From TrEMBL:
<dbReference type="Pfam" id="PF13361">
    <property type="entry name" value="UvrD_C"/>
</dbReference>
<dbReference type="InterPro" id="IPR027417">
    <property type="entry name" value="P-loop_NTPase"/>
</dbReference>
<protein>
    <recommendedName>
        <fullName>DNA 3'-5' helicase</fullName>
        <ecNumber>5.6.2.4</ecNumber>
    </recommendedName>
</protein>
<keyword id="KW-0547">Nucleotide-binding</keyword>
<dbReference type="GO" id="GO:0033202">
    <property type="term" value="C:DNA helicase complex"/>
</dbReference>
<dbReference type="GO" id="GO:0005829">
    <property type="term" value="C:cytosol"/>
</dbReference>
<keyword id="KW-0067">ATP-binding</keyword>
<dbReference type="GO" id="GO:0000725">
    <property type="term" value="P:recombinational repair"/>
</dbReference>
<dbReference type="InterPro" id="IPR014016">
    <property type="entry name" value="UvrD-like_ATP-bd"/>
</dbReference>
<comment type="similarity">
    <text>Belongs to the helicase family. UvrD subfamily.</text>
</comment>
<keyword id="KW-0238">DNA-binding</keyword>
<dbReference type="InterPro" id="IPR013986">
    <property type="entry name" value="DExx_box_DNA_helicase_dom_sf"/>
</dbReference>
<feature type="region of interest" description="Disordered">
    <location>
        <begin position="653"/>
        <end position="700"/>
    </location>
</feature>
<dbReference type="GO" id="GO:0005524">
    <property type="term" value="F:ATP binding"/>
</dbReference>
<dbReference type="InterPro" id="IPR000212">
    <property type="entry name" value="DNA_helicase_UvrD/REP"/>
</dbReference>
<keyword id="KW-0413">Isomerase</keyword>
<dbReference type="Pfam" id="PF21196">
    <property type="entry name" value="PcrA_UvrD_tudor"/>
</dbReference>
Length: 768
């Protein structure tokens, strides 16, 4: 078969052996996706019904890419596969079986913001200190319990859990969990964790349902198995129990989501569940140079808890890995920016060939400053998702109410948007009435005269009639027509259209973009159900890793290492390699946590195809204080023969004990400085910033403002405008970013270069 011809022997064996339990240990860049897709295609070619194959992934993008590849081999039969993320597949099953566990089939899926909003409401009602009972903390505590299949009842009964909460001075977490669970149920809503938790409940309490899906899914494949948590592990094990045709694919060396509940033991101990397991190791890295692969191997070899494998590359040896030392984090940003310019110019590369990876989002500031000063375009991944923008969530809340009027969070979000005289006081009255009579908020809204005294009954009646009109129209119109009708008649389109500010226009355009997306969805021919309800389910299940394809823009990519998993770039900078930053200070208390940090470093290294640069600073601002930094232990774990060390010349005023002569010392000399224990400090952990070299002994001439100088409003400025600043003089706006009132402008001033200004404070005057 043609599709088998391009596989290496290990890949081919993994594809052709389809019976019984199998584990494919796939090293970085080893062609994992190709093996998964060809294995599924091979099953279908051998006569297995596509309807009997379940493929579980961690991102919608991964499942979409796989389905497209499979369709190239088997054609339209690929449409019949059950393939998608854990959450999307089991949401689909729960829609069918929901009534068995007491939920409506049109249940709402709460995203993280919805869940935290509900928790904040509960905290207010219980009159709890929101600093002690922080909504994020409570949410994460509940999420962790669900991922470990601990219900609110079991949570309250567990003496160990209760003792832990008491020791943390948060004894009421269990009560909050109970109230949260009951409120979600009353609202006909499930949060993200519920999609797996409730599936486990369904399969445990209803043997007939379990048998139904065991017979349906005769072949199971799970991608990125090292990232599964206990809840996911339990579902997969139950579904595979009848036929045991289960194949898991993953790399223990890339298990980096322990903080989300992922359990590396699921892949390390897989053989204990299936003693007759067949193991296939994909060890050839097709992505990176030999030097990069060897460095990655030398790092991960320091972990004790791992599956044995020998990853290798037959690509060219490639450049040695450069290690750059800077004196401050700002200087580190400058080094990276200058390196990008030099490498791009000398090798004819695009900006999109470069990525800057960091351990924490806060590190992006210094990198951004370095890039901006050299006018290097960049994009930060992991920012606000399109579907998390306020105007989008507002309109979607109307959609949600149309199909599930019991949705408490949707009611609270839009009952007074656009404004209709139903503010927070009214909402509080509705909540109290609903709790007192054990009914939903929607029932109170529909019969306000019965439950709420006062003059607001008419407004509530109008609101309920509005939602009922949406429900009626949705039964007659397709997804796009329904969405447009709701956007128009809710008042959202009018509200945004009359807002002439930059932010208002942007929000209006975002609504139009959402409607365009629904239009495209409504015209798709590859899905049977093109209703607005299904569109809403699809967007509710988007994961953080489902990024828009940004390849058409030539920009440097900046992101945390967690966000970079699964991506690859020709040139990669891993920055901030310092103790207590990477590895994180929080990871230094246990071997388990430290080994996960090392796996995270391994992931960062293996994103690079051609060139890898590691950087660190000897001082960095933390919480407003400049602190000394020492190089990460991970640098000292790399064999010297793979490295090229670059030391930046220090200012002449630095003391001789800390200075360098500007030449590169031998790696062994510098490596000693990493490895030797530092003498105990006799003073403070902070120090004064090292003096900067003086660039000029003359002060710039002070600017005299134009007589009658009057600054313009922040909303008036546009790219390309010539402006005047009281102090900096005349300049030109070369970039605007952000939304009002927090728009930032990059302005080029004559004789001063680029300066970044927050427009609401900048006091700029438009010249022309």
């Amino acid at each position: 078969m043609d599709y088998l011809a391009g596989l290496n022997p290990q890949q081919r064996a993994a594809v052709e052996n389809t019976q019984g339990p199998a584990m494919i240990v796939a090293g970085a860049g080893s062609g994992k996706t190709r093996v998964i897709t060809y294995r599924v295609a091979h099953l279908i070619e051998k006569g297995v019904d596509a309807f009997n194959i379940l493929v579980l992934t961690f991102t919608n993008k991964a499942s979409k890419d796989m389905r497209e590849r499979i369709s190239k081999v088997v054609g339209t039969e690929a449409k019949n596969l059950w393939m998608g993320t854990f959450h999307s597949v089991f949401a689909k099953i729960l829609r069918v079986e929901a009534e068995k566990i007491g939920y409506p089939s049109n249940f709402t899926i709460y995203d993280t913001d919805d869940s935290k909003s509900l928790i904040r409401s509960i905290l207010r009602e219980m009159q709890l200190d929101d600093k002690l009972y922080n909504a994020n903390f409570v949410y994460n505590r509940i999420s962790s319990a669900k991922n470990n299949l601990v219900s609110h009842v079991e949570y309250m009964k567990s003496a160990e859990i209760q003792a832990e909460d008491i020791s943390n001075k948060r004894p009421l977490i269990g009560s909050i969990y109970e109230t949260y669970t009951k409120r979600c149920f009353k609202a006909g809503a499930m949060d993200f964790d519920d999609l797996l938790f409730k599936t486990n409940v369904l399969l445990k309490d209803h043997p007939d349902v379990l048998n139904k899906y065991q017979q349906k899914f005769k072949y199971l494949m799970v991608d990125e198995y090292q990232d599964t948590n206990f809840s996911q592990y339990t579902i997969v094990k139950k579904l595979a129990a009848a036929y045991q045709n289960i194949c898991v694919v993953g790399d223990d060396a890339q298990s980096i989501y322990g903080f989300r509940g992922a359990n590396i033991q699921n892949i390390l101990n897989f053989e204990k569940d299936y003693p007759d397991l067949k193991v296939y190791k994909l060890e050839q890295n097709y992505r990176s140079t030999q030097n990069i692969v060897d460095v990655a191997n030398s790092i991960i070899a320091n972990n004790k808890n791992q599956l044995e494998k020998n990853v290798f590359s037959e690509n060219e040896s490639g450049d040695k890995i450069k290690v750059s030392r800077a004196f401050t984090d700002n200087e580190e940003g400058k080094i990276v920016a200058e390196s990008i310019v030099q490498e791009r110019t000398s090798k004819g590369l695009n900006y999109s060939d470069f990525a800057i990876l960091y351990r924490t989002n806060a590190q992006s500031r210094a990198m951004e400053e370095g890039l901006r000063k050299l006018n290097i375009p960049y994009k930060i991944f992991g920012g606000l998702s399109f579907y998390q923008r306020k105007e989008i969530k507002d309109l979607i809340a109307y959609f949600r109410l149309t199909f599930n009027p019991s949705d408490e969070e949707a009611i609270k979000r839009v009952i007074n948007y656009p404004k209709r005289g139903l503010g927070d006081t009214t909402v509080d009255k509705i909540i109290v009435a609903a709790d007192q009579h054990n009914i939903t908020m929607w029932q109170v809204v529909c019969e306000p005269q019965t439950y709420i005294a006062g003059r607001i009954a008419n407004q509530l009646n109008d609101f309920s009639m509005l939602i009922k009109s949406f429900q009626a129209e949705s039964k007659k119109l397709d997804a796009y027509e329904t969405a447009l009708y709701i956007a128009q008649h809710s008042g959202i389109l009018k509200e945004l259209h009359t807002d002439d500010s930059i932010e208002g226009r942007s929000r209006y355009e975002n609504i139009q973009e959402l409607l365009n997306g629904i239009k495209e969805f409504a015209e798709r021919e590859d899905i049977e159900d093109r209703s607005l309800a299904i569109f809403m389910q699809d967007i509710a299940l988007l994961t953080n890793d489902d990024r828009q394809d940004d390849k058409e823009r030539d920009t440097v990519s900046m992101m945390t290492i967690h966000s970079a998993k699964g991506l690859e770039f020709k040139n990669v900078f891993v920055v901030g390699l310092e103790e207590n930053l990477f590895p994180s200070q929080m990871s230094l208390n246990s071997r388990t946590d430290l080994e996960e940090e090392r796996r995270l470093f391994y992931v960062a290294i293996t994103r690079a195809e051609k060139k890898l640069t590691l950087t660190y600073a000897t001082s960095r601002y933390r919480w407003g204080t400049l602190t000394n930094c020492e190089p990460s232990r991970f640098i000292s774990e790399i064999s010297a023969r793979f490295l090229e060390l670059e030391v930046i010349k220090a200012p002449k005023t630095t003391s001789s004990s800390d200075s360098f002569d500007g030449e590169r010392r031998s790696w062994s000399q510098q490596r000693d400085s990493f490895s030797k224990p530092k003498p105990a400090s006799t003073g403070s952990a902070t120090q004064t910033a090292p003096p900067r070299p003086k660039t000029s002994t003359m002060l710039p001439t002070a600017h005299i403002p134009t007589p009658g100088f009057a600054p313009d409003a922040a909303s008036a400025f546009q790219n390309g405008m010539e402006v005047e600043h009281e102090k900096f003089g005349f300049g030109k706006i070369i970039n605007l970013e952000g939304t009002l009132p927090d728009v930032k402008a990059t302005v080029f001033f004559q004789g001063l270069g680029n300066k970044q200004l927050l427009l609401k404070f900048a006091k700029l005057r438009i010249v022309k």
